[in-house]
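README, section 4: Worked example with a bound small molecule

Sections 1 through 3 covered apo chains. Here we extend the same pipeline to holo records, where the ligand is supplied as SMILES alongside the sequence. The molecule in this example is flavin-adenine dinucleotide. Nothing else about the input changes; the structure line simply encodes the ligand pose together with the chain.
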Amino acid sequence: MKINTEVLIIGAGPVGCVIAERFSNDLKLKCTIIESRDHIAGNCYDEYNKKGVLYHKYGPHYLRFKNKKTLNYLSKFTKWIKGNYIVKSVVNKKLYSFPINLDTLEQFFKVKLKTKKQAINFIKKKIVKNKKPKNSEELILSKLGKEIYENFYKNYTIKQWGISPKKLDKSVAGRVPIRFNRNPFYVNEKLKLMPKKGFTNLFKNMINNSKISLILNTDYFKIKNKISVKYFTIYTGTPDKFFNFKYGKLDWRSLKFVFNTYKKNYIQDYVQYNYPNDYKFTRKVEIKHVTKQKSKYTVISKEFPQKVGEPYYPIMDKKNKTIFKKYEKLMNASSKRNIYFEGRLAKYKYYNTDEVIENALDLYKKLKYKYKKLK
Ligand SMILES: Cc1cc2nc3c(=O)[nH]c(=O)nc-3n(C[C@H](O)[C@H](O)[C@H](O)COP(=O)(O)OP(=O)(O)OC[C@H]3O[C@@H](n4cnc5c(N)ncnc54)[C@H](O)[C@@H]3O)c2cc1C
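The generated complex, written as structure tokens:
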């Protein structure tokens, strides 16, 4: 079987779907998407289980937007419901607001802190002064002190990453907001929305165009020699595989998800409970709090971090940063051959969904300009 296409896209995740939608709708070009899994939507994939409960197969996806433009673009393919994501951390069997905020500090230290200023002054007496924290441990010690670090961060980070926070880049712990007000939400962005009928439905609508051919259950590398591409190839997989591991393998942290269905309206009071110090899993998620689905049943997922498995989180240590830089050079040079790399796997960076969609839209703009010169 020979495949002739104008644009080839590897991966039917958010990036692959956006690129296919733009080329097929805007420039009317024939696009082919190759996807190794049996579904579209990448890690945003959600589906209904046997009891009819909508659940997120690859961990909870709390969609939020840094940029109104990205929201406007996605609004062509879905209606929205509000996404008020609330997370609690379970420490010594008590529930605390997480990310750390003024309520967490009051409850944990058993003090009354009326204002943000009072909270900041209180924590100043706890912190380990350090103007240039070099890793995740030093960062949290310098912002919140030893007690909070040891009860809320340390063991969670060790479980999640399998290494000491001392060995982890400070950007990892730095991703979680720290607040001295009473804002209870998991994320800082004001635009927090969930696709009303789920993520898979959103991406299905996005690629609903007869100019797009979708080939599922197929690894690109197994059929690569049978494909002829007229204009562009966009690759959203891991870079080491693309270049046949020339500079070695990039490490990823993976997860095992265990799902249980219960004949109950709800099991938890909030969508996510973090367990920093107990159990082998890191968090328990009941996504129904976010999908707002009406059902007699509910699903709880537990996440067990592991070394092997699907690539979920890039490991930002020295060794991997060095290897990635070498692949980055090869990726940049490939644009001369009209091969482009985009997305969370190809960029070896933890991006949220809105960020990869924004990047994909930017790449499309660049390619549209180049196409006009090529044709
Ligand atoms: C556990 C977890 C939780 C997350 N939570 C959130 C959240 O709360 N909010 C948020 O905004 N974002 C969240 N994200 C991030 C979000 O999933 C990503 O930003 C988004 O899915 C990236 O889109 P992508 O297209 O770059 O990659 P992906 O979604 O990874 O899609 C890439 C696709 O390419 C396919 N592929 C790769 N190689 C090949 C090949 N050789 N041949 C064929 N197909 C191939 C893969 O099978 C995959 O389907 C989370 C991610 C994870 C892992």
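What to look for in the output: Residues 225 and 360 are 26 Å apart (CA to CA). DSSP finds twelve helices and 17 strands in the chain.

Section 5 describes how to batch many such records.
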